[in-house]
Every structure is written in structure tokens, then in C-alpha cells.
Amino acid sequence: MAFLGSAVRRVASAVRPPLSPLCRTRARSYSSTPTQEKSVPYETTLKQEDGVTSGPTKPLPRSADVVVIGGGSLGCQTVYHLAKMGLTNVVLLERDRLTAGTTWHTAGLLWQLRPSDVEVELLAHTRNVISKDLEEETGLHTGWIQNGGLFIASNKQRLDEYKRLMSLGKVYGIESHVLSPAETKDLYPLMNVDDLYGTLYVPKDGTMDPAGTCTTLSRAASARGAKVIENCPVTGITVRADDLGVKRVRAVETPHGTIETPCVVNCAGVWATKLGEMAGVRVPLVAMHHAYVVTERIEGIQNMPNVRDHDASVYLRLQGDALSVGGYEQNPIFWDEFAFIPNLEQTGIKSTVCGPGTRTHARMMLGGGCGRELAHWIIHGRPEKDMYGYDIRRFHNSLTDNKRWIRERSHESYAKNYSVVFPFDEPLASRNMRKDPFHQVLTEHGCVFQERHGWERPGWFNKDGPAPVKDYDYYGAYDSQKNVNYKYNELLGKEYTFDFPPHHDVIKSECLSCRHGVAVFDMSYFGKFYLTGPDAKKAADWLFTADVNKNPGSTVYTCMLNKRGGAEADLTVSRLEPGAAILPLAPESNGDAYYLAIGGGVAEHNWNHIRTVLQDQGFRCQLTDHSEDMGMISIQGPKSREVLQEVLDTDLSNESFPFSTHKVVNAAGHQVRTRTHTHTHTHTHARTHTFAWCLKTFQY
């Protein structure tokens, strides 16, 4: 627990002077209860498979509209919001007791400001539920303590980040103040401010009580008709194929009976992967030990705000007249086996609490917002907010059961949990998972790659030579040899700024070359799908906003919409000639067939959207993915036609190869599918036309 040293240096004994006027802008509610030893809610938590000692707390119903599995924070929030939205035939199943999994040992901190506007909204809803709604509905206190929150900045970049957070907070009406070291000392007299650059103070941040919150949520849900059943582990999920061959959930199995249901919500925390396997769903999740210590009584600590020192990677949570101190280290212990009890051992401090934590977005402070969005998703088919960052479909299916990818990405997420969120940052973990045919040659020419959807995508070109991405070194943890002379990492470090990055002039040069001459874009990370089958035309009419049923050989730029009329994606759809398969350039088709080119970062999401439409509408179609089989390059600029005419064996004149058409031709001895597009740019009073050509090749 290296974070302890940072915490000790940060908090020093001092006499408390009066607060400055700035720091007394709001009345605050605090707990003055003497410190109690952290109570483990049940004698056995994270219990063994055979640890069931009693039957369920309520009889199981024969059926339910929704079964939520897991009685932690997110499970309780989800069942509460489902019931509140009117879906009352809902059951929550908990294998032991509420919060007995990972929720019991959470610190329960709620910070209102985050770098994402969506997360700020989710946090605001959680706070409203915990601090106001539940108490009004049930008359019970959830244990919420509004003692404020304080972010520590030890350098200018960190303070700049806090100022950005404060600006974002103003949009949502969140009170916050940037304080000088002296003002910070007035607010928190015990703090050592000698090395501070400044702080960000949010008066209405606070602390949640896991047990009190989940108990109150379950009572509120039960009062609306939902059933919360404890001591009822799930042993299986029945999945059957319907008449169209689509696999659908049918029932949840337990040792005490089966509940028929069309919908299961996986809120099982560290057991989410195991539960997903029961339904044939791969959940990319790994748990790690997370520990915090509870100090002895500290004189004068009462009523102080919670503290986050991001640069020291430590948090200080007020616990009566003591502190809970935790942090995020670069060498967390992976929790590979869950079949044992988290330890609660007495130390010279007061106590040490250690339990598993998963690197997911939906932590307790986001639980209220996520629970509401999940409930809305279940009832209405989609969330109200942009929840793409929480959607499992943001991961490509080839990665969700890749142990190396999961382990490396989870570690880096944990190790960088408190890092400044810069706009140009890229992960070092789980790289080189998906590489296109041009990866090696681009690397040799100095390409600085970005990671998107598992793909290595060209970002910009380093004039000083190659900067390849190396294998992940876990930042030197676990006796791993840290990468030396790592040019790619050095270039990333130079991009850690909120200003224009150092390579901004390189990008300017590349843009001007495209604008006035010609440039080649490697777009191989794009999704490349074929839509075929007897109902392909009906499906295309349903899916796409534009009329894509033009003559074979045509290409149409169009959108896909969702049920609410919102834009799901933009893409190009090319109608193909029927005929024998020339894979991967053309599928076998006796009728209508379409080639879809979709942005790589959302390819998996769009794939699932199309599949869902085909299933729900009963279209007899096949959707096949050839993204890994083909590369894609786009030649753009006023001189693109001149360059391509030297390579292709076909006439590229407007008459022979009109706008928005495509055909299979030869390029340097290889068959490629070529499409034309026209992009018009206006510069002063002149107008130029840029011809974009996409070549597909399956050479690796």
C-alpha cells in the first residue's frame, strides 16, 4: 500500500482556524458519530459455491418480465428504477444477502465532477436518488453525508484539468471553487499545503453508505411491487432458438425453482463473466484486489471534506472522526480466484479492508444514473443518454474473450485511474491486436498509430522515423522489464497537453497536401459487411434513410436510424451484381446484395443494430462480416485521378466511371473493388472537387 506514505504526508496535525468566507458559502450536513470498525455485513461474503445455508427469503414467482441478478449497488438501482418506471413484475435475485459481493467494501465516495458530460449527468441523478428521492419515498435515511469534496493539484496541468471540470460543472449548476493553497489551509487545517498548486472544492459532494443505500432501494422497489429475493443463487440461464434461429432468453434456473423470463440483467459484479457464460455471452471483465485502511481517531478531522490527490493516486474518505485511506497502485493484484473470503484484518492503523473490484464504469457513485438508463433501455429499447461508453458492443467480439487483451487493458485502466484525461492520449496496453495489410509498411514510414476498436489506425506520421508500438510492459510492475527507448511512448508524452499537440504542424502539412495535391488514407479499420438473401431489398428499405435500390454498381451515402428517429450511423451502401462468390470482394447472390462500409470505431455496434432489425422484423437475410479479410485505402485530393489512372486498368473519366459508382478492376495485378465519391470544399472563391477512391484488397 504505497499510497499510505502519500496520505501521511498530506494530512498533518494543526489547529483549526476559522473558515474563510469563500468556504462557508453553504451549510453542510456532517456526521459526528465516533468511528466504528468497518463492519463486514455478513460472516461469509464472496462465499464458496456450496456456501448456501438457507433457502430464499421469499417464494420464487413462476414468471417475471425482468430478472435482475445481483444484489449490489447496480442491481438494486436497476430494480428500483424499473419499478419506478412502471415495470413492477420484476425480480431481483441475490445469492447471499444484499451488498454481500463487492458493494459492501466500496468507499462510497460521490464526486460530482468528471471529464464527461454524460457522467456528470449520471452522477447528478445518483446524488438526487441517494440524498433526496429515497428518503421522500420511504422515510428512511440512506446514510448520505454531504461533507464536500476536495481535489488536490500538485502541478499546473492538473489545476488546468480542474478548471475545465469547474467550467463543465457550471453548465449543470454544480457549485465548485478553485482555491489557493492558503484558502485550502483555511478549509482543511490538517492538510499539508506546502507542495500544492491549488485545489478544487465542491461543497455538495459527499459519502454514500452501501448497506443503507441498497436496503432503502430494495424497500422502495418492493413497495412498488418488485420482488427482492436473497439467499437464492442462480445456477443456469435457459436460452432457446426461436423459429428464425435467433437465440433468446427463456428462464433463470435456481436450486429452488425456475423463473420464466424474456429478459435477464447481469449485475453480478465479479461474477458477471461466469453469469454471462450461462447465457453464451462473453463479458470482458477481470477483478483486482482493492484495499483501503481505516485510521485511528484523528483530532480535528470531523466535518472535513473527502479528498482526492490524483497525482499521489490516493483518496481520503471521512469516516466519523477518522479517515479511510485508499489508492490505486501500478501493481494491483489480479483476483483470479473468487472462491475465498476478502480479509478484514486488524493492523496498527485501525483496520484494513480488502476486496475485489472490477474496472467497469458502473461504480456505486454512477449506479443511480446507470440504473435509470438501464431500466429505460429495457423498457423502451434504448437509453435516453449516449451510453456508448458503457455498452458492451463497444468491444469487438474477437476481444471479449481474449485473456491478454482483458488483463492488459484492465490493468492500465486501474493504474491510470487518477491520471489527467488528455484529449490526445492513447492506451499502451492491449495493442497490435488487429492489424491491417498495410500496417508494416506504414510503421516503417513513421506512422504513429491510434487504437480504435482493437485496430491499429494511422494517426499521423513522425518525421524522425519509425515509432512502433511495443508489447505492454505493465509500467514495470510484476517484475516486468520496462520498455526502454520507447519512441511511441515518448511521442505520446509530448501530446499530454490541453493545447495543440507538438505535431500539429505535421497534421497541417498533411491536410494541405490533400487539399492541393493528393493523399492516401488507410481506412482498413472500417467495418465491411455484406447483406444478402431473399429479403435483402426489404431489409435495405427498412434500414437505410436513402433509396439504395438503384442499379447494380451504384453507391449511396446514407444513414441508419433507430426507432425514435435518431441517427444510429452513417455509412455507404453499394448495390452488387448477382452472381457467384468472389470472396472477399463479392458474396454469392442470386438476387439483391449490398456491400456496407461502416466507421471502424462503431462497427460492432452497427453490426448488432442491423442484426437486431433483421431479427425483430423477421427478414430472411444473411449479414456477413469481412472486415478482417479486406484492406481499404482512400485516395483523396484534386490529383487523385491522375495517381489512380497509373495504377488501375480501367478508364477513370467521368463518362466511364461516374460519380457514386463502383466496380471490380485490377490494380497492380490484384482485383480490387473501386468506388468513386466527390467531396466539395470551398476555399475563398474557388471550388475544387476531390475524388475519393476506395480499393479493397485481401492480400496480407
From TrEMBL:
SUPFAM superfamilies: FAD-linked reductases, C-terminal domain (SSF54373), FAD/NAD(P)-binding domain (SSF51905), Folate-binding domain (SSF103025). Residues 438-674 form the GCVT N-terminal domain. One of its GO terms (cellular component) is mitochondrion. Residues 28-38 have a biased composition (Polar residues). InterPro entries: FAD-dep_OxRdtase, FAD/NAD-bd_sf, FAO_M, GcvT/YgfZ/DmdA, GCVT_N, TrmE/GcvT-like. Residues 380-434 form the FAD dependent oxidoreductase central domain. Residues 65-332 form the FAD dependent oxidoreductase domain. Residues 25-61 are annotated as: Disordered. It comes from the Eukaryota. This is Sarcosine dehydrogenase. It comes from Scophthalmus maximus (Turbot). The gene is SARDH.
